[in-house]
Amino acid sequence: MSSPDISVKSDTRLDTLLREKGVQLWRIPILALNGGVKVFRGKQELALRDASVALKAGDTVRLIVPMPKACAEALQREVNVNWRDYAIVPGDSKYDLQLKKFIQARTNTVLLKDLQMQTLQGFVRGLASSLEITRPIRDLLVVSHASNRGSFRMWLYPPTDAEVSKAKAENKKLEAPYIHYEDLEEAVKNKSIVLDVALMYPRPVESGGITHPHLRLLGCEVGGQAPYMQKLKEALGGKIEISAPKHRLVGASFVVSVASLQGEVAYMAYNFRAQFPTPPKLGPAARTKRALIDAFVDLVKNKQPGFVLENGSAVPATAWTRWIPTDLNAKPIVKSADTAREFPNTVTAPLRKLRMNAPRQFGYIKQRHYYDGPSVISFKNDTGDEAKRKEAVKAFLEKIPVFSAKHPFPEYVRNGYATMDEFMDGWNWQFTYDTKLKRLTYNPIRDEYHVWQPITRVAGNTLIWNYYPTSPAAKKSGKPPPNIQLQVTNPFFFGFY
Question: Whole-structure pTM over 0.70, yes or no?
Fold first, then answer.
């Protein structure tokens, strides 16, 4: 049985025509030389010495299905020997640029430069036609910022003319938005980012066996939000495995005096978070080091998710004394441009037991607003009772599907709460009431304290990393080899779906 014939409309070449029809560049010569494609001029079959054969208008090109055994075997040999992982790093933040260096150092990884492939839709669609896909595909990697609220920052589709014009008019840089759960729901509905996994077959036979097609998101913490990751997988067509870190991802250059040991590394950091309704006045809640330590200790005792170390043990109370600075309220994060504070943190590198600095970060996010501005509901007979005001707002919000417990990814879960009641108690709602209009205004804010502590082996304080040497001598000799400790199948470090 053969596939539908392709009628040649104008003079061209076989390889050009096949690329236009979505046949990957690396496959074309193998198909041509092993009977996977045939060309007919009238009733005569042309002999194919290579894929550059000239075609004339009126010729017929036929991709043979099922593929001849010799052709399938030739494709498999090529895949086994010359597979590559393909990556995009669309952003240009400090985080993106550091991880770009890691990707460039990574073994058998191609960083795609094609601008049309720097959106998620463009990436999955370009796998068939891009001239940069010159070797078989094993895995796909996408580097960008992500969030524990379940979001990933990059353009889902190319920016519209209106978005470009608005940025120019406001003299602002055109920045990618976050892809939220609702965006993925729309993509599922429209089938707009479905990935053709046939482009990633046949699969390479490696020492660990044959793996399934896999997309790796290299962004912080999003792997811990199963509803988001499952919806992304569905939007991609449901046939590719996807993974992402459950912790903060950190890229760094490993710089030591021995040049042959220098390289690029990626490791992870715990994000220990305590969040409180912003008090009306500074003082009552978690404003001293002792109070914040007690709050973190309570979170550990209550077995709050995320407060377990890599060996399964709970965070010891003594750790908070070391990790929380005395001046914890200094340099608060108020604006998007504000950054967390860094503190020296010496660890043992898993390479000749060298010592290195993997900085700890501490962030006090002051008065984080839930909304961009105040919101209003109609509310009659207000008595000023805070509890009744919260009940009214809760009742109003729960009529919105995303706040319902029936939603697959409720808004309160995205914000770190198990229930809607916890969500309501987690903010200072800043109520005001207009007695004339009978309207209740609310503008919820909360304070957050974050400890981002690099993940090391509890026994020995050795950093857990992925390392790739960058010196030409090391790459040529294979000494030292890459050191891969962060395995995507490890459920402590990655969400795998």
Answer: yes
